[in-house]
Amino acid sequence: MSASVALSDLGIPVTVFESAPQLGGRARGLIYQGTQLDNGQHILLGCYLQTLRLINKVGGNINVDFLRLPLQLDLNGEFSLRAPHLPAPLHLLVALLTSKGLTISERLNAIRFMLALRRINFKIPHDITATEFLSLHNQDTALVHKLWEPLCIAALNTPIHKASAQILLNVLRDALNNLRSDSDMLLPRIDFTTLFPQRAADYIKQRGGNIRLGCGVESLHLLDKFIEVTTAQGTEIFSHVICATQPVAAARLLRSIAELRESVAQIDSLEYQPIYTLYLQYPAHINLPHPMLGLLQRHSQWLFDKGQISVQHGLIAAVISAEGIHQGLSHEELAQKVIAELHEEFGIAEQPKWFKVIAEKRATFCCSPKLQRPLQLTAHPRLMLAGDYTAGDYPATLESAVISGLKCADVISAITNQ
Ligand SMILES: Cc1cc2nc3c(=O)[nH]c(=O)nc-3n(C[C@H](O)[C@H](O)[C@H](O)COP(=O)(O)OP(=O)(O)OC[C@H]3O[C@@H](n4cnc5c(N)ncnc54)[C@H](O)[C@@H]3O)c2cc1C
Fold first, then answer.
1. What's the CA angle centered on 244, arms 242 and 247, to 5 degrees?
2. Which residues does ligand 1 sit against, CB inside 6 Å?
3. From the CB of residue 141, how many other CB atoms can be counted at a distance below 10 Å?
4. What is the distance of C-alpha 373 from the center of its chain?
5. 7-61: per-residue pLDDT in tens?
6. Domain containing 283 — which CATH number?
7. Which of 52, 111, 143, 232 is the most exposed place for a label (fewest CB within 10 A)?
């Protein structure tokens, strides 16, 4: 959608083929029991500049569409950190210094670490795992456990012992090192399909583009000057194609194209990590102490009070990122664990009226060190790849997906202007 918006702006007509009956992909709204949910609770960071710009461009208003919270981590009594209104990176240093749940030497250790990262410009010569990197910088067990591990899992959706230190540093660099607002956390007040792709679709249609829902691409065939796109509705030809599916679907579509062998091999080498989101509808008076808070050593890693975020009173979302023992539980068993945790941690004794577990088994690629992610530009000049898994500085995020689409649009506009 980001590529299509950018191309529409340039007066280049686009056709978007979407196999699902609705837009949004891995960030989509859905209705359950008459309640608006998302396939997963999404958080944007203030440094996701391209995504936020695009939401505003297609008719959103990021000041209205999001609950914007200054950087804060609250692990329900185990640890808390809150950034004061100071310029970056002072806001982070003061937040670390005044955080609760760590000894003074641990807090100074975290500050020394952040200053060391600034000195090396958040770049390491050879990528290693986040666990190895943190240990090289003497970040002890409590610091890793309460601060770096929750941050790493939330940002990279990858267990810390498998996660790329360099990609983690890229996120820390962009979120913590420039403007204070970059580290803000933005929680959508509306569902994700409405927030961006539906508005983008309207924007594209107003500029002459086509959006075909429920119209999956079955095959691509490269001709001399065109690419044939075949769907259940027939075959059409286009000058350029941006393949913007999730990686497994991209590999399936591209496998038969000899020139794309290298891109397909890179996609095939990706591994995946899940994200589970459990929604629980409690009576309307039930709420949490904060809109968003974390738990340590629990199934629920992060809890979101949708009453405080999107006026959906009594609705709580529990998010479990990356692989773990929860994958061995049935949805009913997982829900019972989370219900017990809410009881023990917050005294919520009532039972929810309903719950819904959404298990995205391939939520993101596993963001491990030295990954060879496929470039947007492939060996075929008229066929490009977009998506969160393509080459870039960020882990699998909305921002990496958006940036990849914009890069493809840039290439096409440069070619068509020649
Ligand atoms: C539960 C969950 C929580 C997440 N939380 C966050 C978060 O807090 N912050 C964040 O930044 N990111 C988060 N992410 C990651 C983020 O959602 C993804 O990085 C982003 O949505 C990827 O976008 P994409 O366009 O690359 O791919 P997708 O969203 O997967 O879009 C690909 C689209 O291609 C369509 N498609 C597939 N095959 C075909 C075909 N043959 N023909 C036509 N269409 C096809 C699919 O239906 C889909 O709509 C989360 C992801 C999940 C699953």
1. 130
2. 17-20, 25-27, 39-40, 42-43, 216-217, 244-246, 249, 253, 275, 277, 360, 363-364, 387-388, 396-399, 401
3. 9
4. 17
5. 999 999 999 999 999 999 999 999 999 999 999 999 999 999 999 999 999 999 9
6. 3.90.660.10
7. 232
